[in-house]
């Protein structure tokens, strides 16, 4: 099976793990699940928009699993990953000998998805020539194998996904307007992870439970704060990769911020235990939005516990750096005892850099 393609039955067979769920209790995720619940039953095409790794395929699987076609095939194809020359055979199948190398008669994606749903991922990458053929198949609900002489009826619910939405391709002249109208009947937007930071904790827990089912793993304090400060261009997929890496570095099942490999300045600084002060300034009153006005400051609002944890970590690190890791003097600057400082450093997994240059006695 080529990389471009994944096939699975819509419902997990007995004994198989259940289909993965869209996890998250943020308002955005609740709204998304509610919208999916409303549109799943309709059978109409759905165009899903969202950044890479944000959960578009998962949303498509949820639409399929909650609709009338559940239990029938769900087929996903990455339109950007199929070579142009193989595209027609991939979508519609081919007869034996249709081209050099076509040694056997083969089913296409439409036949494989018959009765179920076909997800066209990165649909805006389809070349114009293929867009014409796809449109014809959708209008007539019939496909013809490459090298074949008769059409066959197919009954497939079409779902498609793209990062920026299809209208952009139409405006740029790279996506046919008639195909756009066919596909874009219902629009669904999956928000990026940085716009639903409330979901970080449950996502981390679910991902870790999946990655290490037989291990008890927990997050060190401030891991969530460090994650919340990251922009996650790769969204949930990036979080999964980060946690997999962190798990490999975990000490006694504790995931520490410096195991995450955060690429941001915050991450680099956390690794070096020198965290720059990046606390969001308290808004001056005139910047606060008035009722009926759009909020003017769109900085993400963090759960207070995360924010305080991050603030504490940053201030302690600043004091330590300023006093060249002389704990007694750093504690004095912070107005706490050395014992309290040691306790908080441990709790927040603040590590001191190794000094090989004959530091003064600390
Ligand atoms: N809300 C979510 N809850 C749980 N896992 C998620 C969620 N969103 C995404 N994932 C996981 O992140 C990864 C990427 O999701 P995917 O649906 O393939 O994203 P996309 O199709 O937008 O690139 C998958 O492993 C998926 O299971
Ligand atoms: Mg995808």
Task: Give the arrangement of secondary structure elements.
Blueprint: E1 5-9, H1 27-40, E2 46-49, H2 56-66, E3 73-78, H3 84-92, H4 109-112, E4 117-121, H5 128-140, E5 142-144, E6 151-153, E7 157-162, H6 167-172, H7 177-183, E8 186-189, H8 200-211, E9 218-219, H9 223-228, H10 235-249, E10 254-255, H11 265-271, H12 304-322, H13 327-334, H14 338-347
Parallel strand pairs: 2-7, 2-8, 3-4, 4-7, 9-10
Antiparallel strand pairs: 1-3, 5-6
Bound molecules: adenosine-5'-diphosphate and magnesium ion.
Magnesium ion binds at residues 56-57, 121.
Write a short abstract of this structure:
This protein is an alpha/beta fold and 362 residues long. The chain has helices spanning 27-40, 56-66, 84-92, 109-112, 128-140, 167-172, 177-183, 200-211, 223-228, 235-249, 265-271, 304-322, 327-334, 338-347, and strands spanning 5-9, 46-49, 73-78, 117-121, 142-144, 151-153, 157-162, 186-189, 218-219, 254-255.
Amount of beta strand = 5-15%
How far apart, in Å, are the first and last alpha carbons?
Answer: 62 Å
Overall pLDDT confidence: 83
Count of individual beta strands = 10
**What class do helices, strands and sheet pairing give?**
alpha/beta
Sheet with the most strands: spatial strand order: 1-3-4-7-2-8
Q: Spans with pLDDT under 50 lasting ≥5 residues?
A: 8-17, 266-297, 356-362
């Amino acid at each position: 099976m080529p990389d471009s393609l994944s096939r699975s039955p819509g419902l997990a067979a007995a004994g198989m793990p259940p289909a993965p769920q869209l996890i998250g209790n943020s308002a955005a995720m609740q709204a998304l699940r509610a919208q999916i619940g409303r549109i799943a039953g309709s059978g109409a095409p759905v165009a899903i928009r969202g950044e890479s790794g944000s959960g578009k395929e998962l949303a498509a699987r949820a639409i399929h699993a909650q609709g009338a076609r559940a239990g029938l095939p769900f087929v996903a194809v990455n339109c950007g990953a199929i070579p142009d020359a193989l595209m027609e055979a991939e979508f519609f199948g081919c007869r034996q000998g249709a081209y050099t190398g076509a040694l056997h008669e083969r089913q296409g994606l439409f036949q494989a998805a018959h009765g179920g749903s076909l997800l066209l991922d990165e649909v805006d990458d389809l070349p114009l020539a293929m867009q014409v053929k796809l449109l014809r198949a959708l209008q007539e609900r019939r496909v013809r194998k490459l090298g074949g002489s008769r059409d066959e009826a197919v009954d497939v619910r079409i779902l498609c996904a793209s990062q920026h939405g299809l209208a952009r391709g139409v405006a740029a002249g790279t996506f046919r307007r008639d195909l756009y109208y066919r596909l874009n009947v219902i629009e669904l937007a999956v928000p990026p992870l940085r716009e639903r930071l409330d979901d970080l904790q449950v996502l981390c827990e679910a991902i870790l439970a999946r990655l290490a089912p037989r291990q008890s793993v927990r997050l060190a304090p401030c891991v969530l704060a460090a994650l919340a400060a990251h922009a996650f261009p790769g969204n949930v997929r990036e979080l999964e990769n980060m946690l997999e890496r962190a798990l490999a570095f975990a000490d006694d099942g504790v995931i520490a911020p410096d195991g995450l490999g955060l690429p941001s300045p915050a991450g680099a600084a956390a690794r070096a235990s020198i965290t720059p002060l990046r606390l969001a300034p308290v808004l001056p009153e005139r910047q606060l939005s008035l009722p009926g006005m759009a909020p003017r400051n769109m900085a993400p609002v963090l759960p207070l516990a995360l924010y305080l944890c991050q603030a504490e970590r940053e201030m302690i690190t600043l004091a330590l750096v300023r006093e060249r890791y002389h704990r007694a003097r750093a504690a004095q600057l912070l107005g706490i005892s050395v014992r309290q400082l040691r306790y908080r450093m441990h709790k927040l997994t603040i590590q001191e850099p190794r000094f090989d240059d004959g530091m003064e006695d600390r």
